[in-house]
Structures are given as structure tokens and as C-alpha cells.
């Protein structure tokens, strides 16, 4: 008999596997505080960002079981955010840097003040806001960002089939606003151009996605569980205006 709960679940092969991916945006960085565009550049966290990272590490250890894997973008602001959480885990769980989780490459815009780019690149920004997927500052297009993020998700799914033939796999991944947005829109079935339908993630916010994985490692279905949650940071935990 189909119950009221089961009717909302996807109809999949009986032995499909479950992959949960918890995505965490980095804490406040120096360039966040200065209002600079980051992309692949930028340094580490501010004092506030380090406090956010420690608070988030405590929250993750309370809210979730010990994960099967922990991934992070290889950029300093993300590695510094991930470190307090990794330090709280058993030694067997090693932090895995993955450059595919980097922010979109903003090319020559990186390091410049948002206000300066908005003025000097007004035509390009208007075209992007109008729906054109231009290379940002001569760097990446959003579709290219989406492709590398989905490549990382596909590898996690394949690992799930290989290493967890029964039950559920939990992965915590520390990243940036852009990759988290692109992973979210893909999980709910939107194309890369649909990223504007998802609000940008705040510093140290938590987004959870769920995937059903076939025995061959392919993603059969996916959904958004929660998005941009920052209640663990308390009042005043707003989104930083840059990446």
C-alpha cells in the first residue's frame, strides 16, 4: 500500500543508494569585508570569519553523524573554514581538497572593488543580468562552473556505488557561493542559467542536497533538503555581497 509519505518519494530501482551532500560556504574573508571580487584569488578569513568557522564546526558535529568524506575547495578562505571541522573528526577522516569546488574564475575582475567593476564594466554586467553567460572578467562562464561542480558530484556518486553498496553515504563539502548555487539548481532540475532562482549563500551557511544513486554509480534523482541555513550563527548572519 502506498502511504502519504512514500507518494512523494521518487520511484527508483529497489537497490538504489542514498548520497547526502552537505555544502558549507566559507566564512567571512578579508576581501568580503572590503567589498572586493574574489573568484580564484583572495586570502584567508577575518577574525569574524574564523569565529563563524568554529561555530559552524560545532554545529555540524552536533547536527550530523561522522561523515564518510570531507571535501573542500583548495583556496585559502575555504581551507581555513574547513579546518576546525576537520580537527573535530576522527583521524581516519582526511580533508580532501578539490579544485573543482573553487569559486567561478572572475578573471581580471578579481581583486577589484565591486563598485569599481560595476562602473567600469557596466555593459558586460548588463548583458549578464539580461541572461547572457559571458566569461566574467575574461574568466569562466557560469555553465563552465556548473560543469566542474557536476563533475565533482558525479565522482561522489560513483564512489558511493563502489564504497557503500548498502545504506547511505554522507559527504560534507566546503565551498563558495557560486558552486553551491550551481549544485542546488542542478539538484532541482534547473539548467545553469537558472541560478538566479536561488539566493546566494551567506558566509558559513549550510545547504543540504540528496541524491539517489544507481548501482552503476549514476545519479537517478536528486532534491534540495535545505538551503542557505545560518541559524546556527545567530542574529546578524547575513550574506556577504561577494564570492
Detailed description of the structure:
With 243 residues, the protein is α/β, with parallel strands linked by helices. The protein has one domain (14-233): Phosphoglycerate mutase-like (Rossmann fold), CATH 3.40.50. The chain has helices at residues 30-34, 47-63, 76-87, 114-120, 122-129, 142-163, 177-187, and strands at residues 17-25, 69-72, 95-97, 168-175, 206-213, 219-229. A hairpin with a 5-residue loop joins strand 5 (206-213) and strand 6. Helix 6 crosses helix 7 (177-187).
Task: Write a brief caption for the model.
With 243 residues, this protein is α/β, with parallel strands linked by helices.
Mean pLDDT: 92
Please trace the helix and strand order, writing H or E for each element. Answer: EHHEHEHHHEHEE
Tally of contiguous helical segments: 7
Under CATH, the topology can be stated as Rossmann fold
N/C terminus separation: 48 Å
Radius of gyration: 18 Å
Largest sheet: number of strands, sense, barrel closure = 6 strands, mixed
> Helical percent range?
25-40%
Strand content: 15-25%
Tell me, what is the CATH class?
Answer: Alpha Beta
How does CATH name the architecture? 3-Layer(aba) Sandwich
Order of strands across the biggest sheet? 3-2-4-1-5-6
- What is the CATH superfamily? Phosphoglycerate mutase-like
Tell me the number of strands.
6
What structural class do you assign from the helix and strand content?
Answer: alpha/beta
Oligomer kind: single chain
Shape: globular
Which residue ranges are poorly predicted, with pLDDT under 50 across at least 5 consecutive positions? none
Number of individual domains: 1
EC number: 3.1.3.3
InterPro entries: His_Pase_superF_clade-1, His_PPase_superfam, PG/BPGM_mutase_AS, PGM_Phosphatase
Pfam families: His_Phos_1
Enzyme class: hydrolase
